[in-house]
Amino acid sequence: MRYNVTVDIPNLKKLPYTLYAKGSLIEIPWFDDNEEFVHFKFGGNTVFVLFYTFAGFRRAYIATGWQSDNDGEPVTLPGVNEKLCVIYTARGKKIDHLKRVLYILTDEQGEEHKVFKLPLLFWYRLAAVIQQNGAPRSDLSVLWESFTQKRLIKLSKKEQRDLKAV
Question: Own/partner pairs for 42-45, CB < 8 Å, 24+ apart?
Fold first, then answer.
């Protein structure tokens, strides 16, 4: 079983980075006593996404709590005290593709927390789609349907035709 992960997001600009986290929360976020950090707690068997912005660059990570050597080398990231299993690291334009995919899978579907509870295999395949070609909505739709047995809503007519051809 994977352990819960707490992400400490800086509230004050004392650190050289900013952090944004998206995932399925298991507790209401809370401030520490000094109000320097906002703490977000994610379930151990869920996936979450961390977006970092440093002075000269930015990174995004799809991650979950580290469980065993089968997860590979455990990773530690700023603002996270627990060991992580990093599924995907996005750099440059791929960060924008990842944001777009998360918007489609959470906000447009109206099921924000469900996507983060999908199996790790979904996230590995999603990462491959993003890395390979920027995740066209039709590829995303096929992946979504294979794991949820539901249609991805809000496809354009051209994207619907493309899917029927597959």
Answer: 42/4, 42/5, 42/6, 42/7, 42/116, 43/4, 43/117, 44/1, 44/2, 44/3, 44/4, 44/5, 45/1, 45/2, 45/117
Q: Which amino acid is at 60?
A: A
Edge-first strand order for the sheet with 84-91 is 18-23, 48-53, 58-65, 84-91
The SS3 assignment for 58 reads strand
User: Can you give the pLDDT at residue 106?
Assistant: 84
- pTM value is 0.85
More confident residue, 6 or 136: 6
* Distance of alpha carbon 166 from alpha carbon 164, whole angstroms: 5
